[in-house]
Amino acid sequence: MRAAVLHEIGQEKLEVLDDVEAVGFGPGKVKLRIRATGLCHSDVSAMSGVLPQPAPFIPGHEGAGEVVDVGDGVTGLSAGDRVLVCWLPACGECPSCKRGQTQLCLAGFMNAGTPNFKRPGGDVFGFAGTGTFTEEVVVGAGCAVPIPDDVPFEIAALIGCGVTTGLGAAINTAQVEAGSSVAVIGCGGVGISTIQGARVRGAAQIVAVDPVTSRREAALRFGATEAVAPGELADAKQRITGGEGFDYVFEVVGKSATARTAYETTRRGGTLCVVGAGAMDDTFQVNMFELFFDEKRILPSMYGGGDVLRSYERAIALWRAGRIDLESMITHRVRLDGINDALDQMRTGEALRTCIEL
Ligand SMILES: [Zn+2]
Ligand SMILES: [Zn+2]
């Protein structure tokens, strides 16, 4: 079958090959036919080595499709079911799952070092234990979450990562208060979802911050009340908050420099919510005096910062009610052969989300 493979960490282009096989099917596993997959910034970060990932590997973790086959012992799923791919499945047994913080369950990562694919030349890994830039993939049953019939595959795919991450940051983690002031630094697919989450929560001002003009324009369509380039943020802070700082600032880039800007843009007693996934050697610094004296809450948010299945349901409910717009987030579409164009669109910031149709 066909799949897009990265041969070595640090390479910029994927190679689309047709000699790849999905492996690992057996008890507790399901085989999926992927129909749509989004390109998430984490895929690019894994390719460049910012996020740890063994190679060669197939990127993609934001996908949806149909169940092809179900292994022994799998309940609640059968061939033909429409599902989205959850890259962080909940085991249901560990202390984090029992607390309802299934986004912190590590059970799924236990399989991340096991190859999901093979080629005549050897083993191939799947990103984050999934790997959706492919026609078929074998995953644990917990990674296949049934979706209602009215949710198209391309919308379900986005809910599988970017939308859940962004909405959840505003709704679960920061719990944005009605009437508050919000700044969102980084307006790709996740940042746009954060903006939509802040709007759903009733924020009065939502300032979108991004260096790319097309993203600033998009942010305004999705609910930002104002959109500025990074160099204009200090002025916006002065103008909108009287210099005090925003009630909530979301860092959706994953770099210490933007996290520091976000910290300084948050008001005393306000909330800095870190959504971006960054590198292990990039250190965020806060001195002990400001940490104590300014009483800013620093809240990291991973995969929406709450029960993942509940977050999916909520995203679907808000989408169905027309309270969030997910269709317009898909700005580009390609077939698997166009995957390198999709990567370019991601790197230039031209695309909010590129949907790869399979
Ligand atoms: Zn667990
Ligand atoms: Zn993602």
Fold topology:
Elements: E1 3-5, E2 15-17, E3 21-22, E4 29-38, H1 41-48, E5 57-58, E6 62-70, E7 82-85, H2 95-98, E8 117-119, E9 122-126, E10 136-140, E11 144-146, H3 153-159, H4 162-173, E12 181-185, H5 189-200, E13 205-209, H6 213-221, E14 226-228, H7 233-241, E15 246-251, H8 256-265, E16 266-274, H9 288-293, E17 297-300, H10 308-320, E18 330-335, H11 339-348, E19 353-357
Parallel strand pairs: 5-9, 12-13, 12-15, 13-14, 15-16, 16-17, 18-19
Antiparallel strand pairs: 1-2, 3-8, 4-6, 4-10, 4-19, 6-7, 7-11, 8-9
This protein binds zinc ion (ZN) (2 copies).
One zinc ion binds at residues 40, 42, 61-62, 161-162.
What would you note in describing this structure?
With 358 residues, this protein is α/β, with parallel strands linked by helices. It has 2 domains: 3-161 and 306-354, Medium-chain alcohol dehydrogenases, catalytic domain (Quinone Oxidoreductase, Chain A, domain 1); 163-300, Rossmann fold. Helix content is 28%, strand content 26%. The chain contains 11 helices and 19 strands. The protein has helices spanning 41-48, 95-98, 153-159, 162-173, 189-200, 213-221, 233-241, 256-265, 288-293, 308-320, 339-348; strands spanning 3-5, 15-17, 21-22, 29-38, 57-58, 62-70, 82-85, 117-119, 122-126, 136-140, 144-146, 181-185, 205-209, 226-228, 246-251, 266-274, 297-300, 330-335, 353-357. Strands 4, 6, 7, 10, 11, 18 and 19 form a 7-stranded mixed β-sheet that branches. Strands 14-13-12-15-16-17 form a 6-stranded parallel β-sheet, with helices on both faces. A 4-stranded mixed β-sheet has the order 3-8-9-5, with no helix packed on it. Helix 4 packs parallel to helix 5 and helix 4 packs across helix 10. The longest helix is centred in the last third of the chain and has 13 residues, at 308-320. The chain is globular, with a radius of gyration of 20 Å. It starts with a strand and ends with a strand. The mean pLDDT is 95. Bound molecules: zinc ion (2 copies).
